[in-house]
């Protein structure tokens, strides 16, 4: 029986790539604790396993000498052989428990070494099991991940990484982002039931998931020609993505949307119908805030860069669109730009516009250098005439600009 046990241990260690001496040492320690309880030994027991025959010897420890003055523990012990009958059977049972624990820890350590450098990567998995608190997702054979969706009212220390309204079926394929790989050797306090839960934690609510999806669907984003500068999400409902291009001849918004919206439609489909707005990023804070409020049209933006505060003026018929349902559009725009945004309509802002200092810059739908006259009327509107070649103004306002330093004439025909 004993030799058969050693043969089985040797074969298992070779199959699982486990150090045989390490396994035997673990078995000796585990059996020592078990026999100390079974035989009611006050000072514990010592167990040795013959490496050749597999026979188990149990020794009762009897202290000798005086205990340590500080700790009160004995350092030297006499060993008395108290090996009971049936030790091989008990050792085989204990070996089964220890082998399972060692194999489980070795597998978790292997997974940690493989995936610890992949935090932030997107994975595709298959739903294996659903529980009230998390989903078990199979990444590949032998590797599983956890998608937690704990109730924050019951477990405030746990995560909720599932968008509201999403439910998954058995064997359903889904994409998710790796946000954590638990270290099996960590000394930190483990989360509830961590030892029984998969070591990889994934998320469907993280903003970086949107970046990775665009990298998969848009070659320009993968090649870093188009860069995703910022993402704001309300998972399962709506998202805003700000993009810029490193190539002046490439439209980053058009590249992400794709022909007839095919690329962004694929991203929306993977996010189970979550609405995705792709806007143009700008290094000019005023224009960036105006673009972030899309699809609403913006008349003017006043920016306080030091305090990260922006006041936005919109046409009266665009106020509700700029704010959005329950403030959603403005809230996402604020997260996207990092500015606190205060939105006012033109009717309420007319008195303010008259006193706007010169540092306030208008924001129009057209970009700089669009060929239009740059003259501004007192109410903030911009002249719609085309600028003359080599000038910033049209013919009328160019003459007015040239005459700005001259003394005005009382003759009404002097400007004709």
Write a concise synopsis of the structure shown.
The protein is α+β, with helices and mostly antiparallel strands and 416 residues long.
Question: Which tags fit this structure?
Answer:
single chain, 416 residues, alpha+beta, N Utilization Substance Protein A, Chain:P, domain 4, OB fold (Dihydrolipoamide Acetyltransferase, E2P), GMP Synthetase, Chain A, domain 3, 5 domains, 5-stranded mixed beta barrel, 4-stranded mixed sheet, 12 helices, 23% strand, elongated, disordered C terminus
Count of DSSP-assigned helices: 12
- What is the radius of gyration computed over CA atoms, rounded to a whole number of angstroms? 36 Å
Number of strands: 15
Instruction: Please give the order of strands in the largest beta sheet.
Output: 4-5-6-8-7
Which regions have little confidence, pLDDT < 50, spanning 5+ residues? 358-368, 405-416
Q: What name does the CATH topology of the largest domain carry?
A: N Utilization Substance Protein A, Chain:P, domain 4
Q: Alpha-carbon distance between the termini? A: 118 Å
Mean pLDDT: 81
Name given to the CATH homologous superfamily of the largest domain: NusA, N-terminal domain
- The CATH C-level name of the largest domain is Alpha Beta
**What would you call the structural class?**
alpha+beta
Tell me about the biggest sheet?
5 strands, mixed, barrel
CATH-scheme architecture of the largest domain? 2-Layer Sandwich
- Number of domain units: 5
Helix content: 25-40%
What's the SSE blueprint?
Elements lengths: L1 H15 L3 H19 L6 E5 L6 E9 L11 E6 L5 H29 L6 E9 L3 E7 L2 E6 L24 E9 L18 E4 L3 H11 L1 H4 L3 E9 L3 E8 L6 H6 L4 H9 L4 E6 L4 H8 L7 E5 L4 E6 L4 H5 L4 H10 L2 E6 H9 L6 E2 L32 H8 L14
Parallel strand pairs: 6-8, 10-11, 13-14
Antiparallel strand pairs: 1-2, 2-3, 4-5, 4-7, 5-6, 7-8, 9-10, 12-13, 12-15
């Amino acid at each position: 029986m004993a030799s058969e046990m050693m043969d089985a241990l040797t074969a298992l260690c070779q199959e699982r790539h486990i150090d045989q001496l390490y396994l035997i040492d673990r078995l000796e320690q585990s059996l020592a604790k078990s026999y100390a309880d079974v035989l009611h030994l006050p000072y514990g027991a010592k167990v040795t396993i013959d490496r050749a025959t597999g026979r188990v010897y149990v020794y009762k420890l009897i202290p000798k000498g005086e205990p340590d003055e500080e700790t009160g523990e004995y350092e030297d012990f006499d060993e008395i052989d108290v090996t009971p009958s049936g030790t091989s059977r008990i050792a085989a049972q204990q070996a089964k428990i220890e082998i399972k624990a060692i194999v489980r820890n070795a597998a978790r350590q292997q997974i940690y070494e493989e995936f610890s450098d992949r935090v932030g990567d997107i994975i595709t998995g298959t739903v294996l099991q659903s529980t009230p608190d998390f989903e078990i997702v199979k990444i590949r054979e032998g590797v599983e991940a956890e998608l937690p969706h704990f109730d924050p009212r019951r477990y405030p220390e746990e995560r909720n990484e599932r968008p509201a309204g999403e439910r998954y079926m058995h064997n359903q394929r889904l994409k998710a982002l790796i946000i954590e790989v638990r270290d099996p050797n960590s000394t930190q306090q483990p989360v509830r039931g961590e030892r029984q839960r998969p070591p990889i934690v994934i998320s469907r609510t993280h903003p970086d998931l949107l970046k990775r999806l665009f990298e998969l669907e848009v070659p320009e984003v993968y090649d870093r020609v188009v860069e995703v500068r910022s993402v704001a999400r309300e998972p399962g409902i709506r998202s805003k993505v700000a993009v810029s291009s490193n190539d002046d001849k490439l439209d980053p918004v058009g590249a992400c949307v794709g022909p007839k919206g095919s690329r962004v439609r694929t991203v929306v489909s993977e996010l189970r119908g979550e609405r995705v707005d792709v806007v143009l990023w700008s290094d000019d804070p005023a224009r960036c805030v105006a673009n972030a409020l899309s699809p609403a049209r913006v008349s003017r933006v006043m920016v306080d860069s030091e305090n990260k505060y922006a006041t936005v003026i919109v046409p009266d018929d665009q106020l509700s669109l700029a704010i959005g349902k329950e403030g959603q559009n403005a809230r996402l725009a604020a997260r996207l730009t990092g500015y606190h945004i205060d939105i006012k309509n033109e009717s309420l802002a007319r008195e303010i516009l008259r006193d706007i200092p010169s540092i306030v810059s208008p924001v129009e739908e057209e970009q700089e250098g669009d060929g239009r006259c740059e003259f501004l009327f007192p109410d903030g509107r911009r002249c719609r005439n085309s600028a003359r070649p080599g000038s910033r103004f049209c013919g009328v306002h160019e003459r007015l600009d040239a005459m700005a330093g001259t003394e005005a004439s009382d003759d009404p025909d002097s400007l004709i």
